[in-house]
Known about the structure:
Chain A has helices at residues 17-23, 34-42, 46-56, 58-64, 68-96, 102-107, 110-118, 130-143, 161-185, 197-220, 232-243, 249-271, 282-296, 299-303, 323-354, 361-377, 387-395, 402-418, 427-436, 439-443, 447-454, 456-472, 474-494, 539-550, 554-580, 584-599, 649-664, 676-684, 701-723; strands spanning 7-13, 126-127, 384-385, 499-503, 510-512, 525-529, 636-640, 668-672, 697-698.
Amino acid sequence: MATLRKQYVVNRPLYSEDSFAQDHEKIYRRRKTLLDHVKQYLTCDSKRVKNTALSLLPIVGWMRIYRVKEWLLGDVVSGISTGLVAIMQGLAFSLLASLPPSYGLYTAFFPVLTYFFLGTSRHISVGSFPVLSLMVGAVVIRLVPTNGPPANITGFEGLTQDQQRVLVASSVTFLMGIFQLGMGLLQVGFVVMYLSDTLVSGFTTAAAVHILVSQLKFVLGLVVPGISGPLAIIYTLEEIFVQITSTNICDLVTSIVIMVVVFIVKEINDRYKAKLPVPIPIEVIMTVIACGVSYGFNFEEKFQVDVVGKMVSGYESPIAPNVEIFKESAVEAFPIAIVGFAVAFSVAKVYSIKNDYTIDGNQELIAFGVSNIFGATFRSFAASTALSRTAIQESSGGKTQIAGLISALMAMIVTVALGFLLEPLQTSVLGALVIVNLKGMLMQVRDVPYLWRRDKPDCIVWLGTCVGAILLGLDLGLAVGLGVELLTVIFRAQFPRCSVLANIPGTDLYRDCKDYLHMYEPKGVRIFRIPSPIFFANIEFFRDKLAEAVGFNPLRVLRKRNKALRKIKKLLKKNDERIIEKGVGGLFHQTSVDSEDKSNMEDLDLPTDFKDLPVRIDWNAELPANISVPRVELHSLILDFAAVSFLDISALKGLKTMLKEFIRIEVDVYIIACDVYILEKLHSCMFFDDEIQTSMFFPTLHDAVLHVLQKHKDQSRLLADTKL
Amino acid sequence: MATLRKQYVVNRPLYSEDSFAQDHEKIYRRRKTLLDHVKQYLTCDSKRVKNTALSLLPIVGWMRIYRVKEWLLGDVVSGISTGLVAIMQGLAFSLLASLPPSYGLYTAFFPVLTYFFLGTSRHISVGSFPVLSLMVGAVVIRLVPTNGPPANITGFEGLTQDQQRVLVASSVTFLMGIFQLGMGLLQVGFVVMYLSDTLVSGFTTAAAVHILVSQLKFVLGLVVPGISGPLAIIYTLEEIFVQITSTNICDLVTSIVIMVVVFIVKEINDRYKAKLPVPIPIEVIMTVIACGVSYGFNFEEKFQVDVVGKMVSGYESPIAPNVEIFKESAVEAFPIAIVGFAVAFSVAKVYSIKNDYTIDGNQELIAFGVSNIFGATFRSFAASTALSRTAIQESSGGKTQIAGLISALMAMIVTVALGFLLEPLQTSVLGALVIVNLKGMLMQVRDVPYLWRRDKPDCIVWLGTCVGAILLGLDLGLAVGLGVELLTVIFRAQFPRCSVLANIPGTDLYRDCKDYLHMYEPKGVRIFRIPSPIFFANIEFFRDKLAEAVGFNPLRVLRKRNKALRKIKKLLKKNDERIIEKGVGGLFHQTSVDSEDKSNMEDLDLPTDFKDLPVRIDWNAELPANISVPRVELHSLILDFAAVSFLDISALKGLKTMLKEFIRIEVDVYIIACDVYILEKLHSCMFFDDEIQTSMFFPTLHDAVLHVLQKHKDQSRLLADTKL
């Protein structure tokens, strides 16, 4: 059993951080200052210029390695299948944005053109994304409501309601593009880190609920005014239930049939994924059938159903965005920009890892920024990517953005030539297709019990984001979710479980003294572990916990001792005076001492001052004249800093006060396993003075304990020696 | 030199966490669940009821120990001196709230009455506080602007402008009281922890700038409409500079004289603090003189100066708050409630520590909540405490709130009987007194260079809060500051400095391998220190840093190996087939392998599967048929978790993936010094499976390194043995 019982043998000098530094010289490493970083950032040589240029045009990179024979066929096939889906989704999602369906086709065309040149992902399918479409739709509805007058904006005169809406949507998209481009140029793509999986899951679930509610009116064939702002979802549902008796039965039946068929076929697609060469394009099939049926039986006139209607044939001239709309919608455009980028980036990352190439977050921001600005001038609305579409593009063999380009061409063909075929299509069919695709997003609700069991704060983030986004709207909800998420991080660091450590006998290991039966806690020594970073929000917490762990409040003890000292000095003086100058002195001194008592409250916090006294007072012994001072059995306090990963200024000040209080009541304080950077910071922030010295730092807990034991053994031996 | 060279000797079995757990049985400690906490919170016995009742009426506590002989005289003297100041400040701060001066006297009276019964602090002087007054003033000005019609609120009909303003102020104060009371009852007093010293310093500096600007019009004798909202300060300054030619010279001269005299006397007070029995009450003296001069020379008619004018004599009947104003001002009342409480609590804490009694944050919230609600019904505005006034109350001998009660009585006397004496007082005098008292708050700007040198993030918090609060207004600025402050905490934890550790020869200590010259890094072993908590925002960062530290991306290596393995299998099969069934097999197999290549991308991430192979492949040897795979020299990776104080779910998932990637390319991973609570969490979150096992945990770095060395020594010996 030799392998089981390997030995751990160490024999080395006992080190404090000071003596360690003496024995082992540290290499001087110059830290880069902020200035150095800026300089480095601004230096410019030909190589960097070339790299930057290349990174701004990723197409050059992948075009050079394009293998025409192997990849082109896959790209074309994939482009065609993706194109069909993109057209369907474009039509359907434009309903979410409260725009005429043809603009969805624009969104499947224009942004792709620029992304082709600028994007670093080779697999994502650029175009409309339901959550984004809905967020744009919220602004559209707010500025151009269905009933009632539009907002008071200069550019609106002489435009029809739809034209006003297109202007709003394209302006918001333009602004979103500016935000994305700006963030890309400022290299702040890392902000998406803050959108954790939990947050995104809660947010998209809320979005799915919003999408569901927004499509109900199409499915039921009702005319419900779009409502925006906090609690809009409640008001919309109320409106729907009020009107529910006027449901269009033809729309409802069509929708249910479509939903059931699509749902079943999708399940089949899923189940026989391995056996099917290509998933059945059930949505396209159903749309074609629905178009035919609606046209054949003239549903529009017979049942008064709402149809797609006159499609704009071909493209319209570019429009300039409206600055007044910028002002009105800036607060909403920012979360749209963030969400759009975050979705695209996370999808792109999945496929870049899968296919072993790198994507660049900041370049993606630039690509989407430019694409949205470009698209917006041609009246398309917010573009990102949809996971479903990208999955089709990649699984059907797409290797590069050439597939994206081909899908865009398909959308162009429909816009230019085949749009009229879609005119008899019921909007309820589009609504039903949107709803049936929500299954995955809504199923994320199953995360909740999982998270609750595993990690309550994460669960609260999910619920906070989801409920916030449902009730307050997606933009405010995202802000609330982010706030809650950041607060959970603070909370985790703020209220950690502190513990008092003790030695496991026969080892150099220390554990929580409540966790094991046989522990060795040296007399007069307390080891306190601080298990988290220290900052403004928890320094007071640690102070309280430490007082609890040692069993007394050091400041109070110090005050009591100083008060006692005054009394003793007074007693001594009185005794002296009684001998030397009996008479006048008594009254005089009484008053002077009284005034001292009043004015020198602050003095009580100073170190006990033994001068003028013939002997040093042993505070734990019986004191004369009924003066009582709390007894302190502790002579050493060891703070385990191993888990303290940072300190801020408030913590530093608080720590300094705390240590001083202990040192002033003659408790030695030791800090162990302190991070080198924190130690450097303490030095640079003037942490050390006469009372707080660098000799208090030890590399390990055991070093400190051995030092303490040694010191107090020496002292007690010294005491014993003098007694003899 | 025996003491210098003490030895550190340890001889114990080598422990992994598993073998340690075998040797040392842990005591089972049942953790309190959420339910237990709720139960405990809701249990009720006679003692708890009594304590709760007592804590709700702190007056009972201190009245029982009231020492009439010793304390009463001090309280009375202190009450009178504080009362004088409270009257002056009440008049002056009501200008900040844009209210007639008499309401400042109300604020010095009503809230004190309830605080007397409910407050736990014995020393603070309850009443108006400049920053709060200004925040209330912002709402007042927004709803009842000087020029232009007031907001469309039902209760405003038939009221004069001043009456409307009083209604707004008292409603906001009422709402603020409700917020405070609510927070107190919900026991959430701990939120003030988030207002760090840095934040408060930046915020109050911004408030001082606002106060300064708001008083300029009084000092210059101009009529400037109050402006509220973001950038209000810019517009106000613009307005003042436009009008500057119509400055009232009498007001200006009076103000300058007052400011210079008060400033000098205050400096004298400060310098000779020890020698003066009581600070010279220069503000009171100057006010009396100014009153007399203004009355004597009839300034009002002669120079058209603005005077206090007709004071309301006596008290008016209580008013009900207006619910419409609640709705309009809820967003502003909340920060007012927070700021008011935070100021009072921090001041109260200073004096409670100094005088050795405890205050209770939640009870203070209740006390201020009730006081503000009570005060608001009697038309007083937001009450908290002013540091200057409290300092006077305490230093002039006040021991309990009896002093506060007496100062309230002084305010009452002026309201009821002596108000007419103040009528000729110029408002510019009050403005000058406010401005001259801003010195301390404005001098906080000196914190900036100090913070910049010490701690850049803290400096950014200060600047963010201050600039935000100056430009956006105090309420929005506070929110911005809080956001920045919380983000700095996240940032500190998010981008820590990771390091690769190595052994200091001859010891069990490990340090950053770049820091020392002579270090021992065992061959094939990498020790990576994670110096901060791991959570959603930094798991990717650590992943990148770890790949950088080991010099390769484990996932990529795994993929390359799996691809190589496929090729090798193919080669082997071909060889077999060439022998067994030459002919048809070749074509058949070619296709089947191709389809495999396409469909099984995901398989590349699975562990390398050596079955069907005659030998285990040594990946670092030369491979046949030009198959090349990156070499991995590493056999063990040790992660130092000592500073990982918490993990969230995202981090847990990310960590699991990361570890699996390493384990699958045959790198042993060890985690050392992992916190017990984190280990428990890993267990409860199903972190462990066939690949990731508990045997990877070791208590110390040295244990793990010894284990690794032993293991690989055994292996190489085993290899050597078989060779022989």
